[in-house]
Amino acid sequence: MPELPEVETIKESMRKALDGAVIESAKVYNRSLRCPIPDVFENAVVGAKIIKFYRIAKYAVMELDNGYSVIWHFGMSGKIKINNERNPILEKHDHVVMNTTKGSLIYNDPRRFGVVTICQTENIFTNPLLCHLGLDPFDENLNVNYLKGKLREKKISIKQALLDQAIISGIGNIYASEALYLARISPLRESLTITQKELKDLIEAIREVLNKAIKAGGSTLHDYRKPDGDIGYFQLQHAVYGKEGQKCPNCLFPDKPCKGIQKLVQSGRSTYYCPHLQK
Ligand SMILES: [Zn+2]
């Protein structure tokens, strides 16, 4: 599932390839994604110029010059393909194809949990998909006081709190584990018990792990014209995620007392951490 850094990379890829392009034609081959693609989609985009790309949490937004914006969410398996040719040969699961003056833009999604929709740009923040989201990890309003206020209402572990999109939007399972490891906070701690100092460290850690992954994505994605939703290279950057039983990168004497990276399951999601380092 693409997490925030992957969405940022996909958005940047689209921006580099297609900013300023005019959409000449659009065709939807399958409307049944997580939310059905609106019937007005094709008419709303054709003839418009693409003027801006940005990201809101794990959504990518493509703003057009006619008052509409296209919103994308990549679900479990959604990806964008950008092709130099107009009318490219279609592959299985290519659900939306737009031909532009700078090449074609294709949305491919085998499992169809993603979203491609359109809304009026002036109403974007009241769109049902976006209006309940908490602050983006990079939003300047995300600070210790904000988090304290949000966590006060919750009797859940800090790991679960990080996954709650109404608190911070855009952190997924991988980066929740990575940020807690970097901040030296146990994923099992009840979120109410996290101190101000720890919250400050945690916010910094969240931004650091996401920034690192965004940088890795940007530098690894050599050919921006073929952004691939299945971006496995972020694995290289992980300290703990998926590394059960491996040596903990920050414990100097990994045999005693650190037993290496442990895995546990919280609310059905895997968490990776070092019980020796994270208290
Ligand atoms: Zn350790």
Short overview:
By secondary structure, the protein is α+β, with helices and mostly antiparallel strands. It contains 6 helices and 10 strands. It is elongated, with a radius of gyration of 20 Å.
Which tags fit this structure?
279 residues; alpha+beta; N-terminal domain of MutM-like DNA repair proteins; Helicase, Ruva Protein, domain 3; four-stranded antiparallel beta sheet; 25% helix; binds zinc ion
Could you describe the 3D structure shown?
The protein has 279 residues and is α+β, with helices and mostly antiparallel strands. It folds into two domains: 4-126, N-terminal domain of MutM-like DNA repair proteins, CATH 3.20.190; 144-273, Helicase, Ruva Protein, domain 3 (Orthogonal Bundle). Helices cover 25% and strands 21% of the residues. The chain has helices at 4-18, 41-45, 144-152, 158-163, 173-182, 196-220; strands at residues 23-28, 50-56, 59-64, 68-73, 79-83, 94-100, 103-108, 115-120, 262-266, 269-273. The strands form three sheets. A four-stranded antiparallel β-sheet has the order 1-6-7-5. The chain has a four-stranded antiparallel β-sheet with strand order 2-3-4-8. Strands 9-10 form a two-stranded antiparallel sheet. The longest helix is centred in the last third of the chain and has 25 residues, at 196-220. The chain starts with a helix and ends in a 6-residue tail after the last strand. Zinc ion (ZN) binds at residues 248, 251, 258, 274, 276-277.
